[in-house]
Amino acid sequence: MSAARMVRYARRRAGMTQRDLARATGMPQPAVARIERGVVSPSIATLDRLLAGTGTMLEASPALGIGVDRTLIRASLRSTPEERVSSAGAAGRNLADFLRAVGGGSDS
Q: Can you tell me the distance from the alpha carbon of 30 to that of 90, in angstroms, rounded to the nearest whole number?
């Protein structure tokens, strides 16, 4: 997510206007607007300051290179609860069969 989107999202979630955020951080409102539009890329310190002004923290997370297949999530959400339970049961049985085949499962 870009810095512009982070700031705009955090500000809106906090129910703040750009002017409110500017006041809370001691920054000029036009500077906040330029950052939210992506015209200016803020430093990490500035981004952290803006997010803190909304009550949000900047948090580092490692880039694992693992994505989420949202198509599978959407397909699951289109299923009925009964279909999801049935699918989960089948997945559990498949896992148990796999573990038995590789010698990692118990036969209890």
A: 56
3-state secondary structure of 49: helix
* Cα distance between residue 41 and residue 7, in whole Å: 11
Give the domain extent around 90: 70-101
Residue 12 sits in a domain of what CATH number? 1.10.260.40
Residues 6+ apart with CB under 8 A from 61: none
Count of structural domains, the chain: 2
| Residue range 36-79, pLDDT digits in tens | 999 999 999 999 999 999 999 888 776 666 677 778 788 888 99
Placement of tokens 């989420």 in the chain: 68
Mean pLDDT for 32-37 is: 97
